[in-house]
Amino acid sequence: MTTANIGQAEFVKQTNRTCREAWPTIVDNFAKYSSWQDPKLSERRGFAEAVQLSLLAGIDFHIFDEIHDSPVPDGQGDDVEEIIGTMQYAVEQGQQRLAPIATPAQVVALFADYNALAREYGLGDCLVDRARMRQLDAARAAGPS
Q1: In a domain, 2, yes or no
Q2: pTM for this model (two decimals)
């Protein structure tokens, strides 16, 4: 991570914008992936597979990488690194099947530490929370756009 002469408020604003722009792509990709799944999969198994192979990859690529590659405010690199470090840890736990991800509540629980740190820092548009899970459920039910 690099630091820059940027204030925390501007960093938060830019990062929230990045996340707002990323989430529709992540949700659409999740819906597309879900539509390609074997219809014989149970709801839980299909959801878990879509989370593992689509959602987590999308979060990693569209949110983690973007934040990681953005300049952070001077003196706050450790704070931002801690936030995205908890995100990366959650992603890896889910991708490696080391944490349960078969329900929306389990996904939210997986990201609990990240969500708490991100919320405290002001990154409300970057959360992996119940509202995002409702978007995923709706997109999955509707199919890809």
Answers
A1: no
A2: 0.94
